[in-house]
Amino acid sequence: MFEPTFETDFEKKTMTITRRFAASRSRVWAAWTTPELFEKWWAPKPWKAIVKTFDFREGGQCHYYMEGPDGEKQWCLLSYESIDPENSFSLFDGFADEAGNMTDALPSMHWRNEFKDEGETTLVVVTIQFQKLEDIQKIIEMGFKEGFTMGLGNLDEVLLA
Prior knowledge:
By secondary structure, the chain is of the alpha+beta class. It is built from four helices and eight strands, in the order E-E-H-H-E-E-E-E-E-E-H-H.
């Protein structure tokens, strides 16, 4: 299993996560862009990701929530901006309510996800741009690194299935 690397640039308000997977680029891409697969890995255990709507296209959205072990729900909305099939996609990610309305109670961010062949593995590079320095600090305090690391570990399990 591969470990992710996290690089934070507070000056540029970015976080870059790099992770290698022992699977083809098309399999890794499908896990990020197919609702049934996305639900299986996105949330750190014991949380679960539950998709309400998933429209993976430029201008489309994914409205989902993460459900905790005590039934608590955290709704989120992904708005897809650009898609270069099996190479990259970008999106705006924010916290939302059950109806899909964005909330500003927690930070929103812009993601760019890149998928690259590296021999028999696939390298995924995620660059997250934050609006304010306080936002990147808040996400770190919320345990993003630990939670996303766990989610990427879940993705290994999905890719091996």
